[in-house]
């Protein structure tokens, strides 16, 4: 309904925020009565909250439809068999809610829909003439989050828009990807959200190209690495930086040594900080080695040190062999940290985690803190590019010289270690965590960080799902081919909460015109006599013109009404008071001052404001 009387809906505001609400959107959505908590991580939308949510959904739907995407409605509960086909039944963690129906069939409560869409498209795809297309849904999902928090920002049940493109070749996929990226920018602009587009890690979804649409947030789940000069932006899980020159204690570039390795007894000197104190050297002169347990590694480790000891399974994702569990040593310069998301991506693994002490000792001969890169024979060594890089001809180039490393046994370190002379890694790559002050990989400027929350994420999936789930079509030559996919998601609840995070003040929400439950609130000081007559007339006129209007006809004190309307954040408020008649007050929620206009002109004035604000967002 475009018009509603307050007495006919549910307005149930709270003076104080719930104790578990720590961010603005959670506090204000609860205080304004937009949502109510039904269980841990489970929030239900009340009528006014649902109206705002539907506005967000409508904008998403309008822009995707305008871009040529096709809406579908898969089921929320899907057969476990399709997840087994893709290989993710075994690989997904505890957030995947697995259930059995009465027939004993494995079922999944969808946390994402790659498998469901791929299975549905597979049944009807036969020819290249049907490609490309992009299908989408706006549907309920469930992830059994271990620590749901921040209200609808990270709940267990949530609403997602997810879209999937099916393409015959890479050029077509690139075009679909750019089409969706452009639609995303339109969507967030229409909502009044200031987004930052960043390069991102594809995570458990797999694929190659990936971009996140983030909003700045003091309590964001993500750390953004940004360049002030060229606009480079990346999630810390993906961010790269320019290589820097490792220097010695005097600040000079490190130089190769011809000295033989010297073992040094150093009881209890386990951390980099204690090594700096003991050796009187900076951390950048050390090489630290960490042992990682790697889950579902899709690399071929048959020629790697220790590779033969790891159990290899056939028929993983995309039909490729994989190792359910393996172990890697990772060498990195002592003053840097390993980025585990980048490491998992480099190893084509679903996840990595530091090995427990028993496995560390079993594979390296030393506890953590004393593991070194020399004489590692039971597991492959991965060297970060801060330590050494592999050249195009297969040779290695050391970037750290005359280094101190763990000695391979408890309470022993090695000095004068030369990468390339004393050890050669199985593989190299960039797995360092980028920090503020590192240099932009594109222009060399100093990088800085912000906290952010992800609203949308787009991937180029390739054939990860179509190959493992046997999706094919006949090309123009009658040859059977496998289509490639893109994946595009927007968290609908999270987007709604982010609008509040960006647009609020101490008194409550300040909705953007495109997402407000109602555009205008008509508030008679008392709903009686001349005030009632003018309020009803303004209300009816606005409703007839298509402006969404809420009439506060409640028998409440004026102060209660005003506080509730501020908290609810209705963009335009018209106050009908006896002392101002025949004039009324019009006030924008985003401004502090009100203006007086004749009561018979108020509806037209409010309508003009609404149209102007919507046009600004649509421009």
Layout of helices and strands, plus pairs?
Layout: E1 3-5, H1 24-31, E2 35-39, E3 42-45, H2 47-66, E4 70-71, E5 77-79, H3 80-86, H4 88-91, E6 97-100, E7 106-109, H5 114-122, E8 133-142, E9 157-167, H6 170-190, E10 195-199, E11 210-216, E12 222-226, E13 233-235, E14 262-265, H7 272-279, E15 286-297, E16 323-333, H8 340-346, E17 351-354, H9 357-364, E18 381-384, E19 388-390, E20 396-398, E21 403-406, E22 412-417, E23 427-429, E24 448-462, H10 464-468, E25 473-474, E26 480-481, E27 484-491, H11 492-502, E28 504-505, E29 508-509, E30 520-524, H12 529-544, E31 549-551, H13 558-568, E32 572-576, E33 583-588, E34 595-598, H14 599-618
Parallel strand pairs: 1-31, 4-8, 15-21, 16-18, 18-23, 30-31, 30-32
Antiparallel strand pairs: 2-3, 5-7, 6-7, 8-9, 9-27, 10-11, 11-24, 12-13, 12-24, 14-22, 15-16, 15-17, 19-20, 21-22, 24-27, 25-26, 28-29, 32-33, 33-34
Helix pairs in contact: 1-11, 2-6, 2-11, 12-14
Short account of what is shown:
The protein has 619 residues and is α+β, with helices and mostly antiparallel strands.
Features:
619 residues; alpha+beta
Structure description:
The chain is an alpha+beta fold and 619 residues long. The protein contains 14 helices and 34 strands. Strands 4, 8, 9, 10, 11, 12, 13, 24 and 27 form a nine-stranded mixed β-sheet that branches.
């Amino acid at each position: 309904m475009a018009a509603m009387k307050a007495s006919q809906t549910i307005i149930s505001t709270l003076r104080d925020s719930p104790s578990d609400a720590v961010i603005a959107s959670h506090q204000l959505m609860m205080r304004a009565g937009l949502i109510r908590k039904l269980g841990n991580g489970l929030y239900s939308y009340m009528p006014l909250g649902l109206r705002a949510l539907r506005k967000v959904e409508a904008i998403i739907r309008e822009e995707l439809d305008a871009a040529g995407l096709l809406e579908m409605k898969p089921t929320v509960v899907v057969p476990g068999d399709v997840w087994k086909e893709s290989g993710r039944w075994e690989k997904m963690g505890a957030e995947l809610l697995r259930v059995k129906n009465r027939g004993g069939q494995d079922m999944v409560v969808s946390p994402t829909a790659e498998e469901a869409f791929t299975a549905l498209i597979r049944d009807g795809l036969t020819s290249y003439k049907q490609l490309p297309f992009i299908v989408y849904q706006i549907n309920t999902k469930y992830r059994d989050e271990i620590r749901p928090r921040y209200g609808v920002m990270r709940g267990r049940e949530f609403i997602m828009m997810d879209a999937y493109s099916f393409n015959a070749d890479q050029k077509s996929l690139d075009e679909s990807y750019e089409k969706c990226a452009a639609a995303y920018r339109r969507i967030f602009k229409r909502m009044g959200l200031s987004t930052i587009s960043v390069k991102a890690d594809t995570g458990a979804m797999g694929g190659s190209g990936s971009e996140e649409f983030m909003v700045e947030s003091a309590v964001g789940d993500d750390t953004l690495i940004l360049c002030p000069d060229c606009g480079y932006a990346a999630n810390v899980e993906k961010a790269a930086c320019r290589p820097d020159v490792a220097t010695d204690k005097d600040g000079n570039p490190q130089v190769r040594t011809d000295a033989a390795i010297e073992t040094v007894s150093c009881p209890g000197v386990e951390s980099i900080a204690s090594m700096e104190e003991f050796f009187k050297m900076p951390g950048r002169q050390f090489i630290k080695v960490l042992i990682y347990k790697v889950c579902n590694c899709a690399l071929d480790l048959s020629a790697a040190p220790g590779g033969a000891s790891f159990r290899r399974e056939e028929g993983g994702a995309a039909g490729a062999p994989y190792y359910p569990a393996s172990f890697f040593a990772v060498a990195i310069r002592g003053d840097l940290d390993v980025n585990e998301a980048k490491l998992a991506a480099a190893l084509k693994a679903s996840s990595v985690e530091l090995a427990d002490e028993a496995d560390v000792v079993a594979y390296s001969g030393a506890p953590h803190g004393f593991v070194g890169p020399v004489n590692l024979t039971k597991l492959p060594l991965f060297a970060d590019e801060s330590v050494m890089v592999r050249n195009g001809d297969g040779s290695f180039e050391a970037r750290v010289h005359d280094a101190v490393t763990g000695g391979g046994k408890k309470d022993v370190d090695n000095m004068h270690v030369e990468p390339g002379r004393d050890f050669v890694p199985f593989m190299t790559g960039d797995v360092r965590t980028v920090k503020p002050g590192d240099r932009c990989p594109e222009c060399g400027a100093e990088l800085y960080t912000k906290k952010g929350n992800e609203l949308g994420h787009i991937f180029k999936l390739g054939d990860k799902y179509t190959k493992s789930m046997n999706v094919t079509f006949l090309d123009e030559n009658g040859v059977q081919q496998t289509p490639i996919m893109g994946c595009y998601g927007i968290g609908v609840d999270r987007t709604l909460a982010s609008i509040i995070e960006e647009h609020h003040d101490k008194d409550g929400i300040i909705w953007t015109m495109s997402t407000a439950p109602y555009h205008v609130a008509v508030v008679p000081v008392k709903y009686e006599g001349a005030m009632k007559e003018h309020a009803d007339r303004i209300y009816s006129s606005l409703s007839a013109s298509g402006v969404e209007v809420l009439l506060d006809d409640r028998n409440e004190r004026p102060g209660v009404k005003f506080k509730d309307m501020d908290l609810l954040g209705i963009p335009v408020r018209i106050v009908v008071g006896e002392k101002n008649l025949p004039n009324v007050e019009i006030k924008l929620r985003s401004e502090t001052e009100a203006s007086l206009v004749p009561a018979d002109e108020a509806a037209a004035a409010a309508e003009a404001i609404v149209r102007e604000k919507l046009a600004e967002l649509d421009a």
